[in-house]
Amino acid sequence: MMGAAPLINIGTSAMRFFFALHSSVLRSSVTPALDNLDKINPADEIMIILGAHSSNENAKEEGRQTFHVVKLLKHPYYDINTLKNDILLMELNNTANFGEFVQNISLPETFEDLEEGTVCETAGWGWTGRKFANCLMEVNVTILNRKLCQRHLKNAVPVTMNMMCTNVGPEGQDTCFGDSGGPLICNGIFRGILSFGTHPCGMRNGAAVYTRLTEEYINWIKNKIERQR
C-alpha cells in the first residue's frame, strides 16, 4: 500500500463467507494456473484471520479470529488471461463473530457507475516501496474513467464494465503487491475488490483495477451462499 497510513482494522466478512480473487488465492497457494485451483485442499492450505492489525500471523491481538477455508466457490467464467470475473467466495469452517474488531460492510444495493473523481478508500498489507506493511494500511484513492485506465494499462488486458479503476495519487498513493483482494469502499459501500494494477506501483500515470461489484456478481454471491445453507 503506497503512501498509506495505518488503519485500526476493517472487515469484509459475510458471516461464514469471505470475498477473494482467483488470482490472489492462486498466488497465496503458489499455484501456477487456474486449472490447479481444483487441486487445492482449502482446509490444509488456506487460513483466514479476521480482526488483525499486524501482518504477523502469530501476533497476539485482542479480537483476532482464525478460520480454515472448507470450500472455494469460484466464478464459472473466470479468465486467467484477461482477469475477467476475478471473484470467488471462500466458505469458512465456522461463523465470524462481529464486534469491535470485526465488522461487516454493506454490499451495494444500487449499481450505478461511480463518477470519475469519486474519492474512495482501500486497505491492505501490501508493498510500501521498501517492504511489506507490518500493520494494516489505508489509503484514499480516486475513481478513474475506463478509457484513461485502459491507456495507462497499455492494453495489457481489456477494461470491461465489470471492472473499475482508481488512479495513482499526487504523492504516489496506490495499491501494490500483496494488496489484491482488498476492498474498495466508496461512501461507506463495498464497491469493488482489488484485482491488479500497473507496475511499478505508485508511479505517475498508473492505475489499479478492481472487480466491480455489479448486480450480476451480487446475485451470484447471494445464490452461492443460499445453496450452501
UniProtKB/TrEMBL annotation:
> What keywords were assigned to this record?
Disulfide bond
**InterPro entries recorded:** Peptidase_S1_PA, Peptidase_S1_PA_chymotrypsin, Peptidase_S1A, Trypsin_dom, TRYPSIN_SER
CDD domains xref list: Tryp_SPc
Q: Which Pfam family would be a valid example here?
A: Trypsin
Q: Where are the transmembrane segments?
A: none
Top-level division of the source organism's lineage? Eukaryota
Q: What is this protein called?
A: Peptidase S1 domain-containing protein
Q: Which organism is it from?
A: Ranitomeya imitator
